[in-house]
Amino acid sequence: MSDLALVFGVAVITFGTRVAFLLRPRAAPEGRIGRFLDVFPLALFIAIATSGLVAPWGSPELIANLAGALGGVIGGVLFRRSLWGVLGLGAACFYLARALTG
Amino acid sequence: MFGNASFRKGARDSVLILFAVGAFGVAYGVLAVDAGLSPALTLFSSVIIVSGAAQFAMVGLAVAGPLPVLLAATGLGLRHLPMSARLADIIESQPLLTRLRLAFILVDETFGLTIRAHDAGVEDVVAYKTAADLMLYSGWIIGTAAGAWFVSSIDPEAAGIGVLFGLLFLGLAAPMVKVRRDWVVAAAAVVATLIATATLPVAWQITTAAVASALVGMVIDE
Fold this sequence. Notes:
The structure holds two protein chains of two kinds.
Chain A: H1 3-23, H2 31-53, H3 62-78, H4 83-101
Chain B: H1 5-13, H2 15-34, H3 39-49, H4 52-60, H5 66-77, H6 80-91, H7 96-104, H8 108-119, H9 125-150, H10 156-159, H11 161-173, H12 180-199, H13 202-219
Helix pairs in contact in B: 1-9, 2-3, 2-4, 2-9, 3-9, 4-5, 5-13, 8-9, 12-13
């Protein structure tokens, strides 16, 4: 699959999910399907974050990565789950740990 | 619509979004070019996808192949379904083209602003969201172009952009953790990802971990 086709594919999927209930208004899924839809984005975001921050065990910067992850979690708690709190404190801890560990 | 009070309020309320999304656009531009996309295709992707999460996932998972990218885009898109239903509820009957336009930029940031404005009694919700969408879209496009063409001299690894990418998704997840079930899902996703990383091919790690932990969330009460 070419890069252009991949971009189109992602665009079609993204727009398809966005327009689903605006094209023909109807009730959102409920019950277990609704719960799955509710929690899937959270599960996916955490999986991607874990993969990038913690999972690469062989990474020479694992300690700095873990410090960044820990800082991000603390930032989320301190700044009431703010995206910028997570990014700011996480990045600060990562760069500090990287400087300290060489 | 462009001159009414709701439109002006939408523009004012989203000034911060313009700059914040612009900064993420720069990061996306740098990462996408580093992942092998041409600057023109990088910009085009921002023009037609308009989803930071899907686009960052696309470049982050590019090495795993197209199937994981499309699965991730589908998974990330699932969160739009309840947003789409809620927006349809508050805009009531609108022409088809208006509904398509509002759907095109149905993103977390302007959706959140629009819901808040609706609850606060803004008169013209469509005009308000249109203004917020225009601000966000401008920031995203300009930021992407700047990152793709003018900031590509930065070495993403040396700059630690990969870690910022992980933190970005952690930050996107943070507001979603509200009840006990969310904490369980988040913990399950960490464990499942570590297991998947050790046992599965790259192409299946994130998708499998996300589905498994979402299934955990599906069967437990809040």
